[in-house]
């Protein structure tokens, strides 16, 4: 009888645990984990057990999340919402997840990110994954505002890779003062501007591989020098090795200890220098400045010589005019008198034509 009672209690306990798991989800109390993977969910399921620390809701059709989506989940530490087609994240969506440390929103279509979308109590969030998550240019601006307003002072890792970013708004990371790793790989960044990385004094790793950097001008080099503790990754960029790249190559040689993949940095253009190491490209292209200087000197000499010739021709012309000044003056007077006679003749004919009586007198005189 006792064994039957124990079995009945055990079955009831297991039944209550099973019943507490949301439909179409898998729950494990022992692992403190709930998985709702590829179940065609339209919203975040309700009834997620309070013991959950690891929550995976991925591969569904959830378009929007808000503060009501995660009530009663104060113990969740790791939250994955990847590949859900989420387009909008409202302010304070994760505010009640006071233990949240890792948030994965990768592979979504974030078009609207509200200003305090990533605010979490106690500033517990340490890792934020937004890889392949930003939908368009406006979402980048929303993100810049959100990173300033969401109180992410404790964030350590931010992943913005694979987002087709062309540029980064100024001071976008200025409030992430404790960030250690920033991943910007596989975007379309064309330049590093002043104040791009302002506020990242504690950054330890910056990944800029697989972007569209053709060179890094002095403004960008100054910006990178403002991150003295940071290890850089710059590989797989289409660097153009032409006149003007020398400051960049000199900086690379000076900063080899900070650039993890410096040995693999090569020229992509022109074809004659393709796969040439950037560490030596500056010395190979330095001659073009010498050739340009020689060309500029020759061009300046040509201009001077042409000026002298034209000036000499002008002097000769003025001297000829001076020698023939009397004849020129006589010709001018003759032309003036001839023009006056012609004008008076035209004036006389006009008066005759305009007065019929004068016209008859003129005809009689002709007979």
Automatic annotation (TrEMBL):
PANTHER family: LP06937P, TROPHOBLAST GLYCOPROTEIN A-RELATED. One of its GO terms (biological process) is negative regulation of canonical Wnt signaling pathway. The gene is tpbg1b. SMART domains: LRR_TYP (SM00369), LRRCT (SM00082), LRRNT (SM00013). Residues 237-289 form the LRRCT domain. Residues 20-54 form the LRRNT domain. GO terms for cellular component: plasma membrane. InterPro entries: Cys-rich_flank_reg_C (IPR000483), Leu-rich_rpt (IPR001611), Leu-rich_rpt_typical-subtyp (IPR003591), LRR_dom_sf (IPR032675), LRRNT (IPR000372), Wnt_signaling_inhibitor (IPR052286). Keywords: Leucine-rich repeat, Membrane, Repeat, Signal, Transmembrane, Transmembrane helix. This is Trophoblast glycoprotein-like. SUPFAM superfamilies: L domain-like. The chain crosses the membrane at residues 303-323. Residues 1-19 form the signal peptide.
């Amino acid at each position: 009888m006792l064994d039957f009672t124990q079995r009945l209690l055990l079955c009831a306990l297991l039944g209550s645990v099973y019943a507490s798991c949301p439909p179409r989800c898998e729950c494990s109390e022992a692992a403190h984990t709930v998985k709702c993977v590829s179940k065609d969910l339209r919203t975040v399921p309700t009834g997620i057990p309070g013991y959950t620390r690891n929550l995976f809701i991925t591969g569904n059709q959830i378009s929007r999340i808000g503060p009501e989506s995660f009530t009663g989940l104060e113990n969740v530490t790791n939250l994955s919402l990847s590949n859900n087609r989420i387009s909008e994240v409202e302010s304070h969506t994760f505010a009640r997840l006071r233990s949240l440390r890792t948030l994965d929103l990768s592979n979504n279509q974030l078009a609207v990110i509200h200003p305090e979308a990533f605010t979490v109590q106690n500033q517990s969030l340490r890792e934020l994954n937004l890889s392949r998550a930003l939908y368009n240019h406006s979402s980048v601006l929303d993100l810049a505002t959100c990173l300033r307003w969401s109180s992410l002072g404790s964030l350590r890792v931010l992943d913005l890779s694979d987002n087709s970013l062309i540029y980064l708004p100024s001071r976008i990371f200025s409030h992430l003062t404790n960030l250690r790793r920033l991943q910007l790989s596989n975007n379309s960044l064309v330049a590093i501007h002043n104040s791009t990385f302002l506020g990242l004094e504690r950054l330890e790793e910056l990944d800029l591989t697989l972007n569209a950097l053709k060179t890094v001008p002095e403004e960008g080099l100054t910006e990178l020098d403002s991150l003295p503790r940071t290890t850089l990754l710059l590989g797989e960029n289409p660097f153009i090795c032409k006149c003007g790249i020398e400051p960049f190559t000199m900086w690379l040689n000076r900063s080899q200890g900070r650039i993890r993949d410096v040995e693999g940095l090569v020229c992509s253009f022109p074809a004659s220098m393709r796969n040439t190491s950037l560490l030596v490209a500056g010395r190979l292209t330095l001659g073009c400045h010498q050739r340009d200087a020689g060309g500029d000197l020759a061009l300046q000499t040509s201009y001077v010589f042409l000026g002298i010739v034209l000036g000499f021709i002008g002097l000769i012309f003025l001297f000829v005019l001076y020698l023939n000044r009397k004849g020129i003056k006589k010709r001018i007077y003759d032309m003036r008198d001839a023009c006056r006679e012609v004008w008076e003749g035209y004036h006389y004919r006009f008066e005759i034509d305009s007065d019929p009586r004068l016209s008859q007198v003129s005809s009689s005189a002709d007979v």
